[in-house]
From TrEMBL:
It comes from the Bacteria. Gene3D superfamilies: NAD(P)-binding Rossmann-like Domain. Keywords: Oxidoreductase. InterPro entries: KR_dom (IPR057326), NAD(P)-bd_dom_sf (IPR036291), Sc_DH/Rdtase_CS (IPR020904), SDR_fam (IPR002347). This is SDR family NAD(P)-dependent oxidoreductase. The keyword Oxidoreductase applies. The keyword Oxidoreductase applies. Residues 5-180 form the Ketoreductase domain. It comes from Kribbella qitaiheensis.
Length: 233
């Protein structure tokens, strides 16, 4: 990985994505801000001089090949786009399940495939922002759980297929992170939302930076990131 190779952040307009972009920009890293909303990405790019904007809709994977042109080399692709709707299985709706699978699984898979030549050239890392729900069953979030379990399978397969080409793959299985998505989750659960109780977006961003900065003699395969007051036996 050359120092000037860019890191592409998918979901750069989101809370975790934009927090990461600010952290990496302060480190002097080259960035590609990827997302569907040009206006919010352009606004972020003004704040982060030198950052490139790349517009594509992760929720419509079939359109990505036609709309997306990548740099020749990438030091990393971080997948920080996603949706989460609370819905128990008995009330599930195929459209909502399908949307989770499109945005959280099929889109990231296709974006990674399209970025693969640049990742191989840059001996880059793929970082997937997964959830504890991708490791353990949790009632009430059927579409989210299906998509995040699938994302884990994607990461495992990608790692096996790409390790000898120099591409490293890391899943971060995170507990709740204090972002607007989490505020919405609390509202759906009918619970009071206290952001300080949860992992802060800056901590999540620093964890992702640690993955990206890991020397090439090692690979951080999986990280489980709990909030401090996670229930313990
Ligand atoms: N917050 C948590 O507690 C938590 C915990 C574990 C894992 N995660 C994961 O972290 C990732 C980022 O979450 P966040 O908390 O930072 O959420 P966020 O602030 O709501 O950001 C979500 C991002 O996903 C994009 N997005 C949402 N719906 C989309 C759609 N239909 N098509 C394309 N892009 C879409 C948004 O783009 P727009 O700005 O264009 O809407 C935004 O960039 C997600 O994968 C989530 O599952 C979050």
């Amino acid at each position: 990985m050359a120092d000037n190779d860019a890191i592409l952040i998918s979901g750069a307009s989101g809370c975790i994505g934009s927090t990461l972009a600010r952290l990496l920009h302060a480190d002097g890293r080259a960035l590609v801000l990827f997302g569907r909303n040009r206006e919010s990405l352009d606004k972020l790019a003004v704040e982060l001089p030198g950052a490139e904007v790349l517009v594509g809709d992760i929720g419509h994977a079939d359109t990505l090949a036609g709309t997306t042109t990548f740099p020749e080399r990438l030091a990393g692709v971080v997948h920080a786009a996603g949706i989460c709707e609370g819905r128990p299985f008995a009330d599930s709706d195929p459209a909502i399940i399908r949307e989770h699978l499109e945005v959280n699984l099929v889109g990231p898979s296709e974006l990674t495939r399209l970025a693969l030549p640049a990742l191989r050239a840059g001996r880059g890392s793929v970082v997937l922002v997964n959830s504890l729900v991708g490791l353990y069953p949790w009632p009430g979030w059927i579409g989210y759980a299906m998509s995040k379990y699938g994302l884990r399978a994607f990461a495992e397969t990608l790692r096996l297929e790409e390790f000898d080409k120099g591409v490293r793959v890391t899943s971060i299985f995170a507990s709740r992170v204090a972002t607007p998505l989490q505020a919405k989750v609390h509202a759906q659960e009918g619970k009071e939302y206290v952001p300080d109780e949860w992992v802060q977006p800056e901590t999540m961003a620093r964890t992702i930076r640690t993955v990206l900065d890991t020397p090439r003699d090692a690979e951080l395969k999986d990280i489980t990131l709990m909030h401090q007051h996670y229930p313990r036996p």
